[in-house]
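Re: beginner question about structure tokens

> Can someone show what the tokenized structure looks like for a real chain? I only ever see the sequence side.

Sure, here's an example I had lying around. Input first:
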Amino acid sequence: METKKRVLSGMQASGRLHLGNLLGALAKWKELQDGYECFYFIADWHALSTCYEDTHEIKGNTFEIAVDWLSVGIDPEKSTIFVQSFIPEHAVLHLLLSMITPVPWLERNPTYKEKQEEIKNRDLTTYGFLGYPVLQTADIALYKANCVPVGIDQLPHLELTREIVRRFNYIYKKDVFVEPEEILSETPKLPGTDGRKMSKSYNNAIYLSDPPEEIEKKVRSMLTDPRRERRADPGNPEICPVFALHNVYSPSPSQEKLQGISRGTTDSPAIDISEISDQCRTAKIGCVDCKIILAKNLIKKMQPIYEKRCKLKSNPQRIYEILSQGSKKARKIAIATLKEATEAMGIHMEAPRSTR
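And the corresponding structure tokens:
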């Protein structure tokens, strides 16, 4: 029987998850479950790299993220779901790897300066923020992950992980750690309500935990084509944030035809994205009507997730059990890998046994 390759990925517990997280990562994670041995963790320690001054939401975010994952189909029967801080070996390996990682490697990381530009209201001139990729390397290396699902913008992070792993293996003359390969996934940059990239940092996101009425409210507030000042002005869907969401959540013409056939009719009251585009360009539809259609389609797609989410939250003990069981399974692997690493370094020591 062929051994499955191991996949590892995680998400920071720095806020609630939104549509961008769903399309950019979780949909791919769900798909990978059937072909790989998957390990997915909630990175509560990583959240400290930017939220060290205000930590009171990290615990709650950890719980909410677990609920989000389960509600979209991350299955604890197929994947190991765990919490970073439940496994102290992450911190120990981070310490050991930090001893061999050159500072210039970290300073050239493109995300280092990009995040500092994006997050202006916090002091990010800390080692924790600079050394984020070292902890990330420890997360991956502890489980000897073969593959890491990433978007193209995250490739520099993964290459740095490979460099640190190679350096460790070279210095200590033993291939303790695996150089992980990327699983590239298309990460659509969904616009938020203000037209910028959807991000919790910008407070412009539609969250997986938003009830239908909140989704409708946020969609109605979205910016549209800035050049369409009046109802009679023709629009340009290609530059409209609302239409960008239509491309994801509204049906294509072929989908509408198939849905009509399944209902025994080719007539459908729904409007597809091709018609929305045409009617926008010819000013046959206004921005308000366009938003109403989007809200309806988006709510319909998100309703199963929201309903499952409500059911899961009604049994919080089950959520904690899943996290505890997954963390116990993950820690067994982490302990064995750390032992192998410290033995290669020649610093492994067994605790003295009691003489009683």
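Each token stands for a local structural state, so reading them left to right follows the chain. The domain at 6-190+316-345 is CATH 3.40.50.620 (Rossmann fold).
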